[in-house]
Amino acid sequence: MANHELDPLPYDYDALEPHISEQVLRWHHDTHHQGYVDGWNAADEALAANREAGTTDGSADAIRDVTHNASGHVLHELFWQCMSPEGGDEPEGALRDRIEADFGSYGAWKAEFEAAASAAGGWALLVYDTHSQQLRNVVVDKHDQGALWGSHPILALDVWEHSYYHDYGPARGDFVEAFFSVVDWQEPTRRYGEAIALFE
């Protein structure tokens, strides 16, 4: 059975200031993200113990915990990779072209993504939808409610309150704008390229 571990941030804790504070990154990464990793491991251990014992007592709750915590871990890993102190630019190349083709313009995509972020109870995602072979913005509540099966996450924005309340209070929109000051399109571009290679 795999033991899931939390990787370090790909930059220093204070690297995204003043847009995201060192304190928020420490709490968010070291406490919240670590909690999802620990929860995933604990749920896997509970399921393994039940299988060994030949029982399903508590298995349904453990299965639900796997879904919640594993999704939280995967999305947080992408979230960290979608930001950098050198960020704040706009996408270029093939991903930019596809955004313009599927949404009309980068500005139209950004406005729709911001609308998703304002409504989400967890995450706003840009995903590649393998069924319709197009990019879509997705509203995800918690970590696993509202996900589109078969889609590949390209860009992730965490809008749980622990992401921004210390820095921005209830002004989530200000946090979303701050995200675009540090967004780094290198990882989304790589993920888009992988999806296209597999499904088109």
TrEMBL record:
Keyword flag Metal-binding: yes
Membrane-crossing residue ranges in chain numbering: none
Domain Manganese/iron superoxide dismutase C-terminal, chain residue ranges per copy: 91-188
UniProt cross-references to PROSITE patterns, sorted A to Z: SOD_MN (PS00088)
Amino-acid positions noted as binding Mn(2+) in the UniProt annotation, renumbered to this chain: 28, 76, 158, 162
Domain of life of the source: Archaea
UniProtKB keywords: Manganese, Metal-binding, Oxidoreductase
A GO term from the CC aspect: cytoplasm
Gene Ontology terms, MF aspect: metal ion binding; superoxide dismutase activity
Main function: Destroys radicals which are normally produced within the cells and which are toxic to biological systems.
Family of this protein: Belongs to the iron/manganese superoxide dismutase family.
Protein's name in the database: Superoxide dismutase
